[in-house]
């Protein structure tokens, strides 16, 4: 009893017992983890300077309430520290004025820890009832309990002053000089403040695919037609969980785009933000500098990864049969076959073996090269030695060649189009998904390659810009020779359903611009920021975001062809063998004709000669008989 009377006198009336007052202020600042305090009082004889000098660790600014007004309050409250403890005596006559000023300037928020001293509970509650107190406010109402010589502490917040909710006052604990603070609150701040009393919050979403026989809510809650507005409906699913958990409902404003800066003003959702029409947006946003003046970004919920997707053209410059060896090696082999045949012929000729021709030696050499053996009988050991070496050489080449072919059939063809430059050079047609961010990117980019793509590959053939919807674009991808810039998270869902295994294996992708992180945004200074940030972290932690991702996003389908079937060499690749065969057949036919002609000619000459001999003989005989 004695204690409290002293304290009460100290706090409100005089400064006689300075040590007690000091202890009280320090324990409050320690309790709120702050070293910055502002004291508003209406007493007249405190010796505060003395206190300040004693405790260099704690910075206190002390103001008489009669000297605080609209003009200087902002300077007083603006201390470069993230947490400020404020101690105010609510029994003063000027308190209500200060409260009204703080209300308009939104000082009842998480940045300030208010400690309000009062000796009358009901009058203090009445004072606070009309104030703009935030959901995240840190207000402790300390009512003096003269009988028990302690303060009774109450926690005060308002789910939403803007939407007309009532102040919520809960018991917080006690404070006395001997034991300090005894806080009995359970759980975290947000856990305690879970009931927003069914207020309706204004939010915005991009929804372009709502059908005529459907309400917006039906559309947002359904998961059919998952290609449409996937990011937005994904995010709606998360916001819905929060609204149910926190007992508020959403008044959804519909828009067609995020909102980009055009001619100095925004469109889409950003315009709603700028006109304070909404508190936060369900549609996730990318962080850009111009937006950050209006909105706060919190957690990333969606990774936007639009890519150029196309079927990689099968480009075999040379046929698979020639591929294993370079043209140099092929030429060297031919040259060596020729040299070997020459050597064999020469050696044999020098040995005066009969029936030796270059052609026969050449055929034998080709036979050896193709692992077919040879028909001649070579007796000279020099020739045999040459042949053995050549057989070894040919079998080494042959081994390498055939294993290369087997190997290349088992592995995938390497993809040769791997960057934008190669894509431009490949001559593949390019289309763009018709979304706001693609329009914005192409119209504002400074990336020279993207500009080149836009000017030379898109605008040239399609003055309108070749924008199309996902279904259309994916059909074109399937037809081939077409690259489509599309958000892959949902495009791959469609592709997986439509494409054959072979087509999936040919799929290739590349970035036109880097991935973008889309996250929850909220209007600057909103009381819901802490709620959304903390809760989205929890949703990530609980795996609910992953669950939503699995509903709305699809990874690139895996190429499973190599497991199920081995690629066969097709006619395109082998045609040249057949062409070669046909030409050779024709050539041999021509050669056969030539030979026939040649034969006939020789035959005729011979017959003619024979005939002339015969007649000569006859003549001779006749002459002889005559003679
Ligand atoms: C508060 O106002 C009342 C009357 O309006 C006055 O009697 C009282 O002295 C004032 N108190 C202070 C601390 O100024
Ligand atoms: C507390 O304030 C209320 C209303 O302001 C008043 O009716 C009541 O008399 C006050 N009580 C004390 C003990 O001053
Ligand atoms: C304080 O004690 C007085 C009598 O001693 C009693 O009338 C009053 O109700 C008590 N007040 C509280 C808040 O307990
Ligand atoms: C804190 O308050 C509770 C309930 O009022 C009480 O049971 C507990 O003993 C107090 N603790 C201290 C350290 O005073
Ligand atoms: C804290 O939890 C205990 C036990 O669950 C409960 O009895 C008490 O009322 C709670 N206190 C507050 C302030 O909610
Ligand atoms: C939600 O708020 C309304 C209005 O205050 C209230 O009637 C209802 O009980 C609350 N629901 C929950 C689950 O707290
Ligand atoms: C709306 O119409 C489409 C066809 O236009 C139909 O497939 C769908 O089932 C209808 N939805 C409802 C809710 O009636
Ligand atoms: C910007 O202003 C110019 C001239 O007023 C107009 O032609 C153009 O269409 C505007 N652009 C947008 C995106 O509104
Ligand atoms: C925001 O709104 C104000 C009017 O409230 C307007 O003057 C300003 O141009 C808008 N800013 C943008 C970037 O749209
Ligand atoms: C609290 O309000 C002040 C003044 O309006 C502002 O500067 C500060 O950023 C706000 N803090 C939070 C956490 O919103």
From TrEMBL:
It is found in: Cell membrane. Residues 329-582 form the Ionotropic glutamate receptor C-terminal domain. Coiled coil: none annotated. It holds the Pfam family Lig_chan. One of its GO terms (biological process) is detection of stimulus involved in sensory perception. InterPro entries: Insect_Ionotropic_Sensory_Rcpt (IPR052192), Iontro_rcpt_C (IPR001320), IR75A_N (IPR057074). This is Ionotropic receptor. The lineage of its organism: Eukaryota, Metazoa, Ecdysozoa, Arthropoda, Hexapoda.
């Amino acid at each position: 009893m004695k204690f409290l009377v002293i304290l009460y006198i100290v706090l409100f009336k005089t400064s006689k017992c300075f040590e007690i007052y000091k202890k009280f202020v320090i324990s409050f600042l320690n309790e709120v983890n702050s070293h910055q305090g502002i004291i508003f009082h209406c007493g007249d004889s405190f010796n505060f300077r003395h206190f300040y000098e004693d405790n260099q660790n704690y910075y206190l600014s002390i103001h008489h309430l009669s000297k605080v007004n609209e003009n200087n309050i902002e300077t007083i409250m603006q201390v470069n520290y993230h947490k400020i403890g404020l101690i105010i005596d609510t029994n003063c006559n000027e308190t209500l004025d200060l409260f009204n000023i703080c209300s308009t300037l939104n000082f009842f928020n998480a940045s300030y820890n208010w400690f309000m001293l009062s000796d009358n509970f009901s009058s203090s509650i009445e004072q606070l009832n009309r104030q703009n107190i935030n959901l995240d406010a840190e207000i402790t109402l300390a009512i003096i309990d003269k009988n028990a010589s302690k303060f009774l502490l109450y926690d005060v917040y308002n789910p939403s002053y803007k939407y007309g909710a009532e102040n919520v006052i809960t018991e917080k604990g006690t404070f006395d000089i001997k034991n300090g603070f005894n806080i009995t609150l359970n759980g975290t701040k947000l856990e305690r403040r879970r009931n927003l009393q069914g207020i309706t919050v204004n939010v915005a979403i991009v929804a372009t695919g709502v059908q005529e026989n459907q309400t917006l809510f039906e559309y947002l809650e359904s998961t059919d037609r998952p290609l449409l507005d996937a990011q937005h409906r994904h995010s709606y699913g998360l916001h819905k969980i929060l609204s149910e958990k926190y007992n508020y409902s959403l008044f959804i404003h519909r828009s067609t785009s995020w909102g980009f800066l055009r001619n100095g003003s925004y469109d889409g959702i950003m315009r709603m933000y700028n006109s304070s029409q909404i508190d936060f947006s369900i549609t996730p946003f990318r962080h850009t500098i111009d937006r950050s003046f209006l909105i706060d970004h919190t957690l990333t919920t969606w990774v936007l990864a639009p890519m150029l997707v196309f079927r990689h053209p099968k480009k075999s410059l040379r046929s698979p049969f020639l591929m294993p060896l370079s043209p140099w090696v092929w030429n060297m082999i031919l040259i060596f076959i020729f040299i070997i045949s020459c050597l064999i012929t020469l050696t044999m000729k020098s040995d005066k073996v009969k029936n030796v021709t270059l052609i026969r030696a050449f055929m034998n050499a080709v036979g050896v090269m193709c692992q077919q053996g040879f028909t001649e009988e070579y007796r000279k050991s020099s020739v045999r030695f040459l042949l053995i070496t050549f057989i070894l050489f040919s079998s080494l080449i042959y081994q390498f060649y055939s294993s290369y072919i087997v190997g290349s059939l088992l592995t995938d063809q390497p993809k040769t189009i791997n960057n934008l430059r190669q894509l431009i050079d490949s001559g593949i047609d390019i289309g763009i998904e018709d979304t706001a961010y693609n329009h914005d990117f192409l119209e504002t980019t400074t990336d020279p390659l993207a500009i080149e793509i836009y000017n030379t590959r898109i605008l040239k053939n399609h003055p309108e810009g070749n924008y199309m919807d996902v279904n259309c674009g994916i059909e074109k991808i399937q037809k081939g020779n077409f690259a489509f810039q599309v958000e892959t998270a949902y495009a791959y869902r469609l592709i997986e359903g439509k494409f054959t295994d072979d087509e999936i294996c040919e799929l290739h992708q590349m970035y036109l611009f880097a991935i973008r992180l889309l996250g929850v945004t909220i209007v600057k200074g909103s009381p819901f920021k802490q709620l959304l940030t903390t809760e989205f972290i929890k949703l990530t932690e609980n795996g609910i975001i992953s669950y939503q991702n699995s509903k709305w996003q699809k990874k690139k389908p895996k190429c499973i062809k190599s497991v199920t079937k081995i690629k066969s060499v097709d006619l395109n690749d082998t045609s040249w063998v057949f062409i070669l065969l046909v030409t050779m057949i024709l050539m041999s036919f021509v050669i056969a004709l030539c030979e026939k002609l040649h034969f006939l000619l020789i035959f005729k000459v011979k017959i003619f000669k024979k005939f002339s001999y015969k007649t000569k003989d006859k003549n001779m005989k006749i002459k002889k008989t005559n003679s």
